[in-house]
Amino acid sequence: MSIGIIGAGQLGRMMALAGYPLGMRFTFLDKTSDTPGAQVGDIVLGDFTRSDDIRRLAEQVDLLTYDVENVPVEALKSAAGDTPIHPSPALLGIAQDRLTEKQAFAEHGMATAPYRTVDSLVDLRAAIDELGMPAVLKRRQLGYDGRGQRFIRQAGDIESAWEALSGAPLILEGFVDFDREVSLIAVRNRSGEMAFYPLSDNRHEEGILRLSIAPCADRTLQTQAESQIRSLMDAFDYAGVLTVEYFEKGGELIANEMAPRVHNSGHWTIEGAATSQFENHLRGILDLPLGDTSPRGHVAMINCLGQMPALADCIRYPDVHYHDYGKAPRPRRKLGHITAVRPDRASLDSVVDELLAVVRAAEATSAEC
Ligand SMILES: Nc1ncnc2c1ncn2[C@@H]1O[C@H](COP(=O)(O)OP(=O)(O)O)[C@@H](O)[C@H]1O
Ligand SMILES: [Mg+2]
Fold this sequence. Notes:
Layout lengths: L1 E5 L3 H10 L5 E6 L11 E4 L5 H8 L4 E4 L6 H8 L8 H7 L2 H10 L7 E4 L2 H11 L3 E5 L9 E4 L4 H9 L4 E5 L5 E9 L5 E3 L3 E6 L2 E7 L4 H17 L4 E10 L2 E8 L9 H4 L4 H9 L12 E8 L5 H5 L4 E5 L9 E9 L2 H24 L1
Parallel strand pairs: 1-2, 1-4, 2-3
Antiparallel strand pairs: 5-8, 6-7, 6-8, 9-10, 9-11, 9-13, 11-12, 12-15, 13-14, 15-17, 16-17
Helix pairs in contact: 1-10, 2-3
Adenosine-5'-diphosphate binds next to strand 14.
């Protein structure tokens, strides 16, 4: 079975690494061969926003999937021809716009932050009057890792936020004073079988994920999230992994955004769950029976940003695993991650403290250079 992955980033690379033992073969589409995927699979050089380039990939493979969220849906559909694409391009299109994403959440009984669309400074002022401050102004499309958004805390921030973001459709969201951020990684196969990983607790630093810990929640919250996502996936006859990011406030879940793909907050599943999100994504899109999503204990994943720590400093701890994506260092860039598995939460917390110190020390050294 030959699989084409649009985008050759670390997500595609980890997908391929999970699929080789199952007898699958991988070809990536990306602009350069200096990408994590190109180190582990064939590459078709091209632009994933161009139909012709996607077609060149589609012609070589049995099935298409993607590791990037901004593939234009029309180009994707017209290029694919008879080659199946999973996950659902329809849900991909919805998730690409924060407005349609919130509307889909509402249709499936999921609470969201209050919001207003904003297309002018007049709209923005009116929206602030209605939603109050603080609030968050966001580009509706193409945001990631906290880019394309501005917090508005006082009247003096309104114009600067408008100037920074105007020129694209915007949305103003009421600020959610959350207790924490959690995400759920779900998977469905083409026959409709579904499986869910335990919710993970996600800590961000300057808009970028730093740490995920799972499992993190009680049965009530888990069941609530699962039933919402089950309804969403069934409605789109979805296949593959779907991730939903939530704010948790006072024991309630407020949906923030979704990603119709494998997700950074699920990297802990590689060594921390019976079956990884990457293998389950492949099982889902190929309509194979899904794998067990049970955690192997208490698991943490730490992102390495801008500089990798030394391998030996990390793997000297038992059941700690090192992933270097093979990317060139750049400030704050996601270069790799480290996973720790422990039998109980207290011993996990203590190894996380030590690993975070190792990771931060390496990052600080590189920042000084
Ligand atoms: N309405 C909000 N209220 C409070 N914090 C928010 C809100 N929206 C975003 N944030 C914070 O900013 C981070 C990034 O926002 P998000 O919408 O997830 O965009 P991105 O696509 O960059 O991940 C969130 O993880 C959260 O910490
Ligand atoms: Mg996010």
